[in-house]
Amino acid sequence: MVGEPLFRGVSFKLERRDRMTIAGRNGAGKTTLLRMLAGQTSVDGGELVLEKGARIALHDQRPPRERDLSLRDYVLSGCSEPIELEQRLAVLEQAMAQGDERAIEQYAGVQARFETVGGYTWREGVTNVVHGLGFVDEDLDRPLSTFSGGELTRGSLARVLASKPDLLLLDEPTNHLDIESLEWLEETLVGLDAAVILVAHDRWFLEAVGTCVLEIEAGRSRFFKGPWHAWRKEQAARELALGKAIARQEAEIARMERFVERFAAKASKAKQAQDRVKKLGRLEAGRITRDPKDTRELGFQFKKPERSGRVIFELDHARLEVGDPQAPRTLLHEADLWLERGEHVSLVGPNGTGKTTLIKAIAGHAPFAEGRLKTGHNVTVGYLSQHGEELEFGGARTVLEAAGKRTGLTPNEARALLGRFLFSGEEAEKPLEGLSGGERKRLGLAILVSGGANVLVLDEPTNHLDLESREALEDALQAFPGSLLLVTHDRALLDAVGTRTIAVEDYTLHSYVGGWAEYARVREERKALGIVPGPPPAPRTGAGNGAGSGARRPDGMAADGAGRAARRAPEAPAQAPAPVKPKGPSKNRQKDQARLEAAIEAAETAFAQVEDELADPAAWATPYESAKSTARHTAARRAVEDAYAALEAFEERSAQSAQA
């Protein structure tokens, strides 16, 4: 049986250190092209030429099959060359010890090749890759069967990166990565001495990494040399020109059809009419059209919701735990959060810090171990989970049943709704268990749009969505007049939508005024100051909690100056004499100390300004205003303590280096 060809005349040339992004709609064949390049799918026509001896590694969205291996063994299994060279060197060394002259001649060549793949430190490079993708040392000896699907995907990515191929093929490498791992991956790929071909929908990632674009449309390709944003600009210009050309041609065809219809029966105009019929036939034969698949676009808006009260959520002194109830793991401790009407708040933090669990609890799908959550007047919550578990609500089996049960719409109304989200005709009858990740996300969004909620709680809403769908969602959220609590690793969406950022830090929540750009600046400043995360909170068992909640700051640290000492490593003895400074500190050390002292001065100035503002009785007029004022005061005081802690840690390091 002969099928319709997927590609017709796809051509490109790639050199070392080129990083090509493949652009095209879902279903255009991007993943298939990667598998063809990796030799996993046959090429039915044309020619594929690779550099002699080129090593190719593919990371795709399929989880690893070997579930009995440990993470360490799985990642190392991709590093066959350095392992083989190590073994070969050991054999040659034994032969040389026995006086084998041929072994001596071969040894230098094998040693040189071994050095090119990392030499005797290649295992350290593998460990750096694993750490960069968010794993810790304790994960290395865990069997793959104990990891989640997202963790297995990251493990697969670590394996191909550690193998150091000449051609690296990446299919959606940003899936399941937190923002820190994303930034690490960007830096790694930019510095890689290899050719890279990748498929991704993260716009900031594409811009940071790509040097050229291969656009696939209707089975044909167009190669563009230049960064991703320049290609988007050129693509938009082409789309505009195509639209104008189609409009001109349609107008010309309509004009000729009117002429033929009017004068075909008149003898005096019959010859002219026949000429026009011939021209019309030629125009119809060369008619400019768009691929039907390229006209299907996701576009929607949220309904204008009912007005809620000013305060949407107030979360006070919350504690969030997971795991064994007898020995739970604490995710959040003494956490405070508030959301006002019309606010668009982003919730950020590394993977595993409790973002998903927190918004589940806020949406009423998980309990808090301690604390109080107060919901405001006339609040209607629309919740979209990361994996769409809520779609099976009420025993729904198909897309249409899920839409009907979740929205209360009639079958015809549900079909009309689903059609706006690209579920037309038979696609509305698809079984839920057979949906792709992108289809589940579109169905969840369709249900959310019809609900009329005035508060949206969204967990990774762009996962598995293509570029056009992400931009449609971004436009809809920007125009949404209600309140939004958003968890996402899509930095473009964070930058476009968020007006305030709440970060999971030190086992609690810290609020930052401004969107992603402002939070990113603060995060970099904290890194520059050398501030390290605080210790985990004490278990929730009697004396283990220490004093009551009033004796502790919202981040779980002591409310007095002991917070600074707790951040030092190692902690100085209580009566230890001041360290002796070196007689001649270097200029760099003097600059670092001056910078840290300036940071203290700035933090103290800001703290004083906050205290002046909070002297106004209006700042404490209501319980809500009191909570906000307390949080502001705590954050400003914490900034001062962090600045002092950074200076003290610097002075300790300086003293230790002087004594060495």
Total number of distinct structural domains: 5
Count of beta strands = 15
Low-confidence stretches: 542-583
Bulk shape = globular
| CATH domain class of the largest domain | Alpha Beta
Descriptive overview:
The protein has 660 residues and is α/β, with parallel strands linked by helices. It folds into five domains: 1-54 and 166-221, Rossmann fold, CATH 3.40.50.300; 69-164, no CATH class; 232-295; 311-524, P-loop containing nucleotide triphosphate hydrolases (Rossmann fold, 3-Layer(aba) Sandwich); 581-660, Helix Hairpins, CATH 1.10.287. The protein has 20 helices and 15 strands. Strands 2-3-4-1-5-6 form a six-stranded mixed sheet, sandwiched between helices. A six-stranded mixed sheet has the order 11-12-13-9-14-15, with helices on both faces. A three-stranded antiparallel sheet has the order 8-7-10, sandwiched between helices. The termini are far apart.
